[in-house]
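Worked example 2:
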Amino acid sequence: MFELLKEQPADKILSLMAAFRADPRAQKIDLGVGVYKDPTGLTPVMRAVRAAERRLVEEQTTKTYTALAGDAAFGAAMTDLVLGDAVPAARVAAAATPGGTGAIRQAFELVRMANPEATVWVSDPTWPNHLSIIRHLGMKLASYRYFDEATRDIDLDGILGDLARVAAGDVVLLHGCCHNPTGANPSAADWARIIAVLKERGALPLVDLAYQGFGDGLVEDAAATRLIATSFPECLIAASCSKNFGIYRERTGILMAVVPEAGMQAVVQGNLAHLNRQNFSFPPDHGARIVTMILTDPALRADWEAELEEIRTTMLGLRAQLADELKRLSNSDRFAFVGTHRGMFSRIGASPEQVEAMRAKQGIYMVGDSRINIAGLNRDTVPVLARAIIEAGV
């Protein structure tokens, strides 16, 4: 049987990571992998996470299963973090998943169960794994214009024009904040226009919220998601705890479904539990329990929010430094977008050939579409990258 299998295409980011590790140069710079790094290049364990884990070791009395949808307290804590009081809790069904990717997968599975003919619309560009999962599930796929390569900002006219072709019942995948891979995000006024078109078309929004707290702040980064939840009778939200809690390897995520009325919550909740059972049975609990402890303990939460704010402002500082250095070297404002983008990523506008030249000459690793992870920089490497960008002719 195995001889019938075909070799799968290599994941570009994972291949980039392998190439970086194999590079013997001491001054190499990794801007490819999407994880936060402190100025020393370490992805640290956050203070509140350490404290919660110590407490968990002392207090936990069992490692038995929780529930198919995960611990209810995790669902309640995450629903409050993401949605606040935007919608009543009785209208929200939630299930813990293995990371934000697991939440995205379960969201697509739920859509396929409910409406097998639905087309999933994704931004062009989007996180490559969105496309991979949709294709693997055999679902219909379409894209809407999102990024203006000339301005390095969103293409609002393109977004609105393409979303005007969405059919009733189709699913539109939206990045709640900190768009991956571009870093360009709609303004509040832009979101209002996008939502108006989707409501008119009868679309189901699916929000991927992987970076809450990395852009403009915890509440600010949830604003678009909350507006969507209050604007539509139903929507799906896939949230990740990997970045804002720094627990990447714990695989902690959640899928939330906002339903039209409280009476429908039990049916949707049951379907979420059913999907978990089919795909992996009980979800991981360690990371979810750590998150729950942090979000429900005032002291831990305060420390977590303070450290998360330090991470966010560090990235903003690196953005400002890079934008200033590029302005100085280029004698132009053409790289000002680096300072206005939000989150970990920006696409700097280099061609694949220019990206390869920077890798070969300066040991700077970035994805071929020129997406850079701002958090892979520090104050000393920003000037190195800026010079490389200019020398490459970007």
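The chain has two domains: 10-44+306-391, 65-296. The chain is about 45% helix and 15% strand.
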